[in-house]
Records
---
Amino acid sequence: MGSPRGLPRVPARRDQRPASGAANPPRKRVKWRCRIKNYLRRLPEKNRRTLRRRLLAWYTKNKRDLAWRRTRDPYRIWVAEVMLQQTQVPTALPYYARFLKRFPTVGALARASDQAVLKVWQGLGYYRRALNLHEAARRIVRDHGGRMPDDPGAFGRLPGVGRYTCGAVLSIAFGRPLAALDANAVRVIARWLAIREATDAGATRAGLWRAAETLVPDKTPGDWNQAVMELGSRVCTPRQPNCRACPVRGLCLAFARNLQEKIPARRARRPIPHIQVGAGIVWRRGRILLCKRRADAMLGGLWEFPGGKIQPGESAEACIRRELREECDLAVTVGEHLIEVTHAYSHLRVTLRCYHCRSARGRAKALGCDEARWVRPERIADYPLPAADVRILEAIRAAAHE
Ligand code: SF4
């Protein structure tokens, strides 16, 4: 039996690894140091000062008026930084407002249940971020008297706080001169320094971090980090950067060498797998079976219509019967086809083939999941569900009204 409904267990993303545990293998250090030196030599100190001055002046005049820029509350800044990883600003805005209305302080978040946090986060994706934020809030209350630590050692040890989050939150909220290197900043700095190596390669990334740390000013480091990211999201965009409107084009090596469309380079990506999954809408006495995904699995803590990966040569119906037996020790009769839902994650695509099923008897046991519950259809929306299951629920409601 694999992880629930065939989705793989995934390691923490690079940024979710502890900030303090970023030790590099010693044998690679010499190579990294050479490369770092080379990158920085491309931008002498005099040019760095001009770059800072021009970019900060541009940012002061052009920055967007965003909710998290109107506060100095470290908790609110932290929530924004976590939401903005993997999420565009317009998408994050309503979630940010809802989240803070429901959990206005770190204490309120610490007191909430996992399920309440996931429900407010529902639709934003990358749910591990929400669970880490929640666990970190609990530790802040337990170990720091409810006050956000302003020390990179203490803050960086909290779950989900990687090097980026640590630098962004502490520089913006506490004025700590720390770098924050997100995808926008990577692109901008790689272009300033005309770095042609793949920016997702370890040695290049180490060089970029070093360059970012050198560039961050002692005064207003938070504004600086936001200015770099703002430039990346509004002017120095991945395709067709608007160099004519760029306040620092006179100092940008990529612009001078006409390389802006070639940078950043990335390593060749592996093709994204597409998996086929059978999912059962299992009915009994007017209720539908929901399973809670295991905490350590992808989408951990969310509830779903049970099922799993279709094996080679297996039909969706046979898969559903097998998965229900393995996951819940339940015998089901597979009936009418309901819907096919395809959902794309960052690293895989999943097509769910959904069928109505009936289960006459037997207790649903949580063998391959954390919990199994029979739920009235009108109460399913109270549970935190993955985006694909929200679409299945909409199909169930539509079918009921036909
Ligand atoms: S000049 Fe063009 S490539 Fe260089 S930082 Fe500005 S927008 Fe980006």
Note: The two ends are 37 Å apart (CA to CA).
---
Amino acid sequence: MPTATGAHTIFDVPASNQWTVTTEPNQKQFPDLSSLVSTAKTWATENMFSLFKLCSDKDKVVLACSHGNEYRPSNHGGKARDGIKTDCKFRLNAQKQSNGSWNLNLTNPTHNHARPSSLSGMANARRDSNQQHEEILRLSAANVRPNQIMQLLDENNLATKKDIYNMVARERRRKLQDKSPLQYLLNHFRETNIFHQSYTNDAGQLTGLFFAFEEGIALGKRFNTIFLVDATYKTNRFKLPLVHFVGVNCFKKTFSACFMFISKED
Ligand SMILES: [Zn+2]
């Protein structure tokens, strides 16, 4: 008894299960895509459904209900990520304007599936977003840049590049607590027994920070004939060049012996 329309419908959806959102997002114009997506997501949650980015290019993004898309035995291990996909045709379109702002348009307000009666029906969406959050932080900790993280996230990703920057910055603040980055680094060195020595000027400002890891020290003691010393020019935001002490072992292979941040290279 197929009642739903659409060539790709796989599940029969009784017509009584169709429902139409009765409100529209209050705001229609946004200074950037990130604020548009964030408002749309909040509005969808208030209306008991969740959104994903169906397709996007530089001027246009289509947001669909998480029940959108036909069910596909997925490439993520054979299980659909969000329970049953009913090929729901609910759509929000985001269009970039010539002045750089973004407009939001509700182009199809009708869902073809049951409306969850409570937010507990949204558990899948929340679980997905938590998993995605962890994945973003894991990639960021591995020094993957936000642009690359965007490419690595799967099709259900709703996070914009700005969301990723914000998430990473929040996590950084959480880790730092009240400490400055330098206090955090020194604490980390102390707690993990990493050999280090800091140098300060008369005003108490840091002028140098030497540190060495256990393996580097052991190798340096063993192969102590040749050391190459040079400063990298990829300085950090405090403009301290990093001096890298490279040793050479008996197989003429190099190893990192120790490091030092210096205030200037002379
Ligand atoms: Zn829907």
Note: Residues 15-172 form one domain.
---
Amino acid sequence: MAALLIRSIVRHSKRPAATASATYSTSGGRGCTCTSEKLGGKVALITGGASGLGKATASEFIRHGARVVIVDSDEESGTKAAKELGAAAEFMRCDVTVETDIARAVETTVERHGKLDVMYNNAGIVGPMTPASISELDMREFENVMRINVTGVVSGIKHAAKVMIPAGSGCILCTSSVAGVIGGLAPHSYTISKFTIPGIVKSAASELCEHGVRINCISPSSVATPLTLHYLRKVFPTATEEKLRETIKGMGELKGAECEEADVAKAALYLASDDGKYVTGHNLVVDGGMTAFKIAGFPFPSDS
Ligand SMILES: NC(=O)c1ccc[n+]([C@@H]2O[C@H](COP(=O)([O-])OP(=O)(O)OC[C@H]3O[C@@H](n4cnc5c(N)ncnc54)[C@H](O)[C@@H]3O)[C@@H](O)[C@H]2O)c1
């Protein structure tokens, strides 16, 4: 992430601030005027749903008629988020690194609501920003990131599959990242953890397709959530929050747009709803094209 930031700052200092004027920004998506409910009667469970992308997705799912069970290790934020989201939301404390917690969250959801239609394995952490060199990687820190970002996801898939396979339907989503598409954007542990997610999804899809269960992942670009702001603050401790948000906005390549929580929530809605009924094993990259190309910036020979 630090490398991405530095590259981004250098590039943006050389060109007009085109991304600042959003001509087709989704403005957080809260102005959605859609009336058709894409998830009417569905039951969804979202890990890491107390904050950021998980909370935004919970809100989008509820707007489309779903009941959402938010699970998170942060009890205070989770309770607050469920209250904010209204009667269609409820909170359950769950640490995704503890398999019995995940099993209990899935079982309780099915007991209360009779089924589980959508399981979104979204909880994640970045881990330490330093040391930058892999030669100094602290293996305990590495394992901690892998336990949350990878083992937690596999555990979520396992327990969702236990109820979705007998039901013969269901949709599982996982959050990867642009840092899992190209290297060098984030610390090694985070990058490695996020690269594994599309692989896990493909492996699980190969079996789950026989049971009518779909599984996909979403790879967002940087969004100004508490997670990103927290880690940026460590890199730029003296910068104001406004400056940090500007920096995150400046990371994109697509003129007139920036990656917002709502963009990820809408990608999740597409995959979770019948709109994505024939999509499985896929990694939906939501990055304004950032990982699709590299602007060469050749040192062209001069005429003289
Ligand atoms: N924000 C971004 O720029 C961005 C970009 C790409 C991918 N992602 C990924 O999106 C996901 C959500 O990130 P976010 O930006 O919304 O962060 P966030 O910090 O706002 O939310 C993450 C949530 O996960 C919870 N969590 C952490 N460890 C947990 C555990 N062991 N058990 C249960 N819950 C736990 C936290 O309490 C928090 O509520 C993460 O997997 C992250 O890696 C984020």
Note: The chain has nine helices and seven strands.
